[in-house]
Write a structure and sequence with these properties.
single chain; alpha/beta; 8-stranded mixed beta sheet; 15 helices; 12% strand; globular
């Protein structure tokens, strides 16, 4: 049972009564008359062959309030795109697939690159960015939700709770972030959030004071969750990171553009499990190794824009401060796990903390070596200014692909 605590920075929607999904959906159908809802699903083709997305689509078939489902499809050739069309054809809602590797979208990407506006690397950030552009071009959704396609414990109640705070016509929230406990198979998961982000934010506060931005981020119960909903106009002005810093980057952008009174978080589920990333200790370009590097750099860049000065000595102090706080948290997590009958491998936890600590220093050195790095994909506001008709041509390209035109 969730508690009812409000920390005063952003509003927290709890799951106090386990309200039936049908009751939430009935209200959302009414809300949809004034605020139609679109859902973005960023997906790799390989996820169509796994168990999670199959179950997600079956759940989505029963959702009555969605005006549109937009699927971003990565790493797919033409045959795989045609397979994806059949795979998603069972959805009763209007749905469109962005074939990101197809010739039409590749041509638009090349045009963006000529203007210095193209996403610099493939990945979830690029996928979400193109989907956001299509949603704006289609203009069918006043509220836009997004979640990953590898959720093994998915049910449609998660989506209803995610949309509700932003879709309600008498609420003024512009952005909603989901949270949940990361528990599966008798184990406590969520290592990057528990062992890296939380102690890092507290270490930064200890060194630089309780900056409003740090207080804001630390108020999110699970800042790395991949589930959020927002008003469609919020998509206009945010710059989406292209790397693993996507979730932190989005939180930073909505904090920059909107009052915290218009931001909230919601308890989505009692249990949540998805595809687990390997630690990849020997490969800094993959897994939790890469993720921790990108998240640290995203935080450093944001703090620099707020006047925080970094140095090599400061990053060494940050590493030491973080390490002590993270070890203390491992103790607390272990005790919590024992009381709840969950497994927690303290050796593996401490090895992860050692890797994250080393990466805080590595990310700091990368930041100092390249302070002019531009990791963000430009906002769609900027794209429209540079290429006024690109959104309409993106819409036409997606429509042509989905009609099966060669």
């Amino acid at each position: 049972m969730s508690d009812f605590h409000q920390n005063g920075i952003i509003t927290d929607f709890h799951n106090l009564t386990r309200r039936p999904v049908a009751a939430l959906e009935a209200e959302l159908c009414e809300f949809g008359r004034r605020r139609p809802m679109s859902l973005i699903l960023p997906s790799l083709f390989s996820e169509l062959e796994g168990p999670a997305l199959e179950a997600i689509v079956e759940e989505l078939r029963r959702v009555p309030y969605l005006a549109e489902v937009v699927i971003g499809l990565d790493r797919a050739d033409r045959e795989q795109f045609l397979h994806a069309r059949k795979f998603f054809a069972r959805l009763p809602q209007r749905h469109r697939i962005l074939w990101n590797d197809g010739p039409r979208l590749r041509a638009l990407d090349a045009e963006l690159e000529e203007h210095g506006l193209s996403p610099r690397e493939p990945g979830k950030g690029r996928n979400v960015w193109f989907c956001a552009g299509y949603v704006q071009a289609s203009a069918r959704g006043a509220v836009v939700g997004l979640h990953d396609c590898d959720i093994l414990t998915y049910d449609r109640g998660l989506l209803a709770r995610l949309f509700y705070p932003v879709a309600h016509p008498h609420f003024n929230y512009e952005f909603c972030k989901g949270y949940y406990p990361r528990i599966a198979e008798g184990k406590l998961n969520g290592r990057v959030s528990r062992l890296m982000v939380t102690p890092l934010l507290r270490a930064l506060k200890q060194m630089h004071g309780p900056l409003p931005y740090l207080q804001y981020l630390d108020s999110y119960r699970y800042p790395l969750s991949g589930e959020f909903a927002m008003r469609a106009e919020v998509l206009d002005g945010i710059r989406i990171p292209a790397d693993w810093g996507l979730e932190i980057g989005v939180l930073s952008e909505v904090h920059r553009n909107h009052s915290t009174k218009r931001l909230c978080q919601v308890d989505l589920a009692d249990a949540y499990d998805h595809k687990h990333q390997p630690v990849s200790e020997e490969d800094a370009s993959a897994g939790l190794n890469r993720m921790s590097l990108d998240i640290a750099k995203a935080l450093y860049r944001k703090l620099a824009t707020q006047g925080v000065t970094f140095s090599a000595e400061g990053f060494r102090t940050l590493k030491a401060t973080y390490y002590r706080l993270a070890l203390d948290l491992i103790e607390a997590y272990h005790h919590d796990a024992v009381m709840n009958g969950l497994a927690l491998d303290r050796h593996a936890e401490e090895r992860a903390v050692e890797l994250f600590a080393a990466n805080l220093l590595e990310a700091g050195n990368a930041f100092l070596d390249n302070p002019g790095e531009r990791p963000f994909i430009p906002s769609w506001n900027r794209v429209r200014s540079a290429i006024p008709d690109l959104l309409s041509r993106l819409h036409d390209a997606v429509e042509a692909d989905n009609r099966g035109e060669v």
